[in-house]
Amino acid sequence: MTHSDGPLRLLCIVGARPNFMKIAPLMRVFRARADRFDARLVHTGQHYDEAMKDAFFRQLHIPEPDIDLGVGSGSHAVQTAEIMRRFEPVLDELKPDVVLVVGDVNSTIACALVATKKGISVVHVEAGLRSGDRGMPEEINRVLTDQISDLLFTTEADGATNLMREGIAADKIHFVGNVMIDTLLANRERAIPAEETLRGIAGFAGDPAEFGVLTLHRPSNVDDPVVLRRLLEVLVQLSDRLPLVFPIHPRTRGRIADAGLSPLLQGSRIALTDPLGYLQLLGLMAEARIVLTDSGGLQEETTALGVPCVTLRENTERPITVEQGTNTVVGTDPAKIQACFDDVMASGGKSGRVPDLWDGRAAERIADALLAWASARAKAA
Ligand code: UD1
Fold it and tell me: Which residue ranges have their beta carbon within 6 Å of ligand 1?
């Protein structure tokens, strides 16, 4: 039910690190228009520690969550089920008009599923991305969340094509741009200079003007010790040519230790560091010669920054970063990684353009579209 006489009552959901930079501009716009939006924030607790959560809330001025479900880590089934169990009474108590979810993590599908079964409208921000790889947990989360969403906001034109192929009505889909890039543009000037961050990383011995950034955390890259070893071996070789800074995800740190691969990195020019804050990583990426990653967010951020990105995956759900941006998807074959790295070092990599509507105003467009949608629904009721 939409209350046409008062502000739209939104319950906004975050859970894991990549959600935080997506929700920040939305909460800012909703709170700035408090006459039209009553927006509350729920954190599921999927990510919970200082480096994976608190640093982002502080740096991005995200309001403290009104509710923290405190679920923590677990298998996919346990984590998803626990979020659903703890979220249901929150909906019963608050009875929002809309549940707004972002991205593709377990928190996204868990909360969307609880809401839709209670007849509460679901809004999905960053809808329609598809890698075509159902082996990726995020792909399952994307497809299912989109199927049960009432309003779907896309970041690139392919999103609508993907959604309509899956039977989603065109009038539910709005191409609004990219809220993650809203955050990047809003914080570009606040980014911490690379030199300052590199000074604090004990293992970094290179010239602060000549470095690359490496991140790895996808289960397909880090959970299998054979794949992980093969990747780390080629990355160690690359680091002989260009020192690499490797802010290491807790999952990856654990897998490297379990697989006995720590000695491979010791003595190399890959400098490990704990996960970095948003402003530190933004500063590093902006000044890096190359970014090697399996992250979805970094593919988009490097395209917005015009920095060459080498994606260590066989596919991407963000094809626009390849077609228009600076991204090359190379997979995990060492020879291909080496060749792409050589090319970037020799030529400076692809020159790209910033995709349409990645202009810092996506959250405002979402707010406007939400109000128009709510008012049309109220009239129809
Ligand atoms: C999740 C998302 C993934 C996203 C990634 C970003 C799903 C299916 N996956 O994967 O899409 O790219 O977040 O990080 O939702 N841990 C900590 N501290 C924390 C959180 C986690 O140490 O604050 C450790 C735990 O040991 C945990 C492991 O990291 O078991 C993995 O966390 P989890 O949330 O299960 O998945 P991610 O790999 O982070």
Answer: 16-18, 46-49, 52-53, 73, 105-106, 137-138, 217, 249-251
Q: What is the pLDDT of residues 118-137, one digit of tens each?
A: 999 999 999 999 999 999 99
Domains in the chain: boundaries? 8-177+358-380, 192-347
Task: For residue 307, give the DSSP letter.
Answer: -
Give pTM, 2 decimals.
Answer: 0.97
Q: Give 329's strand partners.
A: 311
Each residue's pLDDT tens digit, 216-251: 999 999 999 999 999 999 999 999 999 999 999 999
Mean pLDDT of 59-80: 98
CATH for the stretch 192-347: 3.40.50.2000
Residues in the chain: 381
Q: How far is the CA of 328 from the centre of ligand 1 (A)?
A: 25
Specify the CATH architecture of the domain 8-177+358-380.
Answer: 3-Layer(aba) Sandwich (3.40)
61 burial level (CB within 10 Å; 0-12, 13-18, 19+) = exposed
What are the beta bridge partners of residue 173?
A: 152
Q: In angstroms, what is the span from residue 16 Cα to ligand 1's centroid?
A: 7
